Amino acid sequence: MPVKNLTAAPPRLSPRLPLAAGALVALAAAVVAYVSTGSPARAAGALVAGTVAAALAWFVSTLPGLTVRGLVAGGFFVLAGIFSWTFLKHGVVVWALLAVEGVVFAVWSWPWLRRLRELPRLGTAWLGLAYWLLGIVGAVLILHPGVAAQRVAYGGVFTLAVLAVVAARRDLSVGVAGAFLLAVALLVLSGSGNLFAAVHAVPPDTLWGKNMQHRFWGGPFLLYHPNSLALIAVAAAVRLGADRAFAVWQRLVVTGVAGFVVLETNSRTGFVFLGAAAAVHAVLLWRRRGAGLPSYERWWLAAAAVPFAVLALVLVLSGGQGFLFQSRYGGDDPTSGRLDTWKQVGTEWVHTDVAQKLFGDAQTARAVVRRANDGALSEAERLNLTTDNAAVGALRHGGVLGELAFLFGLALMLWHAVRGRGPGADPPAAWFTVAAVGSLATVASADFLLGGTGGTLWILLVAGESWVTAR
């Protein structure tokens, strides 16, 4: 009787299966596009887009270091952001996702009290959690129990998320980056019929899509703000591109994907973030600093010829200098209305009571900003705006104390990113240095560092800093 070989390697998956699955996905995208538009050109574009989406999903499966916990953590955050835009008028969907997220993170982070004492050591915890706690106090002081209760829910979920990352005691950042790339694949698939079109799908029946049809949001099934979509692509490129654990072809592919997404979304924020990350990466290669940094015989070739060539190509294809300084909403405002929003925040802060000066605006749970000149024709159409500036957002959400917490957290995160845990400790991972220092470029145009449902960059930085301090 033959003896079964117990040490033999498990059978490997035939490469024909993912190829067949990818072909079916691409074909289905083409069929849907043709049926909905009747255009052979749209169907051909959808076929290409479906192929790109399937290839990107396969690419994620090739990444070493991928973990289920990292994929789920990153997936929850990016899905919350996508759902916030896809279901703009159905907030219950986002709350349902946050509830599931909270349960999963609560299970992973038990025992909670023992792990809470580790959070003050993380600059990212100060960045993304402190203003929720301060905001709860502010809402209680001005007798807004409903706002306080919602902030308890928000702050609780995001605190559990950080605790779950800390409890893992391993590097979850590859899984988080993988989740970002899978989200890009889903959005490309959802918008396969309009990815290569001049006019893109935008959120229906709302001012959010006004003058934004030239930017890729996804499609009718899943929508994501173009700046956020560009961010997750660039963040994934930063995580994988500055780590020698990945093959050269993987680093090249993910950098190219980031450039392609920035181009399609017409995102200046994504462009600037990619440029800042490329510059920091070049400095690290020049000084040969950072754990896991790839080594090249000609460092300048890797640092300049790839990321900067991608940036140059994006700039040329996007319209050159006009892309960076264009006024998208008319007038002479290249900040796309951000300047008016910041002025509104400052004006309201000056005229508010002492409690809200210290602890932040407590009129709404997410401290949204409402401007009279946002383009709405009636009060019912008025937009709930974010600050699109992390420093201004810290003041809006947490008042003066929130601003101090933000600055302290930023300094602490940068210390860990540049110096690690201090003299004699292991150096920080090069990718984390690139991501943390490069993220400074996003402060002036986005609130990505503040966490929340749009905190995709934040959760990646949490994973990176947690692993640095754990080691």
Give a description of the structure.
This protein is mainly alpha-helical and 471 residues long. The protein contains 19 helices and no strands. Helix 9 packs parallel to helix 11 (268-287).
List keywords for this structure.
471 residues; disordered N terminus; mainly alpha
SSE layout and pairings?
Elements: H1 16-37, H2 40-61, H3 68-86, H4 91-109, H5 112-116, H6 123-141, H7 145-168, H8 173-190, H9 226-241, H10 248-265, H11 268-287, H12 299-305, H13 307-317, H14 321-325, H15 338-351, H16 354-359, H17 390-419, H18 430-438, H19 456-470
Poorly predicted tracts of residues: 1-11
The biggest sheet amounts to: none
- What separation lies between the terminal Cα atoms? 51 Å
Q: Bin the helical content.
A: 55-70%
Question: How many strand units?
Answer: 0
Total separate domains: 1
**What is the count of DSSP helices, taking H or I runs of 4+ residues?**
19
Strand content: under 5%
Name the overall outline: globular
What would a concise description of this structure say?
The protein is mainly α. It contains 19 helices and no strands.
